[in-house]
Task: structure prediction
Amino acid sequence: MSSVAQPLSADALYPLGAGAPPLTIIDVRSPVEVARGALPGAHALPLMSDEERHQVGLRYAEAGQEAALALGWELVGPHLPARVEAWRAAMRDRPTAVVCWRGGMRSALACKLIERPQARRVEGGYKAVRAALVASLPAAVERAPLLVLTGLTGSGKTALLERLAGRSEQLEAIDLERLARHRGSSFGGLAEAQPPQPSFEHAIACRLRLHRARLVLLEDESRYIGRRTLPAPLLEAMRCAPVALLEAPLRERVARVFDEYVRAPARVAGVAATRAALEAATLRLRKRLGGPRCRTVLEALARAEAAWFEPEAHEAWIRLLLEAHYDRLYERNRAALARTVALRGDADALLEALVRER
Result:
């Protein structure tokens, strides 16, 4: 019976070099707990809803464990058949790790109710898995050489990472901005909220642990991607790693910035909302741009509203931001780190070089 099976260790969920998680992972924590930190690839199928968990916690504080358990059964009982069926459907008869907060009562009860020998609770629960992922980051970073994809703003680094994804088993292309749900600058916010810091760290550690590649390619990033922070072991390794320099002419970069930051979001959120977001981002750079340049950009955005989807209406302020701020910032950072340039060229040249030799 699954209720007496030996629990799984926290390291079993994301083994080094496994390629993909070998276990189905079912997270039976409540939604509010998962929202504070999720596990990559896990099925979030709670034993208790947030409200049920809240009521049981209050009863525990007032009357102790026995009374809390009785209330828990009363609240959850009517919903158990559907919840158990959802757990079994997620398993698909695969070996399954069942995770709760500390690997105790909830996961043990879920395994007992599932009544499948493949379902085993995780010793220490989410807390132990998080600790294992964080502790393993230094060794995970050292598993394969890092190559940092760098280049001026608008050169197409994210697009190149997308083209490289899945092209070769010997190359692991990790899009840190996608994991952070942010494009990494004052203008980089997306409509989708950023994940909590633990979820971001878990996603990075999972990718670095599971891959089977001989080279890991990551886009050049600073310590912060929006409000998320790169784990220190990865950041330090990236600062010392060689780089692949993606080159693109200014006109191409201007066109890409227009498409990604002006046209595409306006088609989703509307012109007024997009203009407001661009103005707010510009104002955040006021000290670095200086008052006159900041006013120039804001005035250009106001004039452009009537012809928002015309590239020519935005070319001047995009060029100003690139040349007066982002290009200078990039060159300062590049000079400060003085990393070795292992490859350089346009997107097609870098793609060919990276795929051919791996």
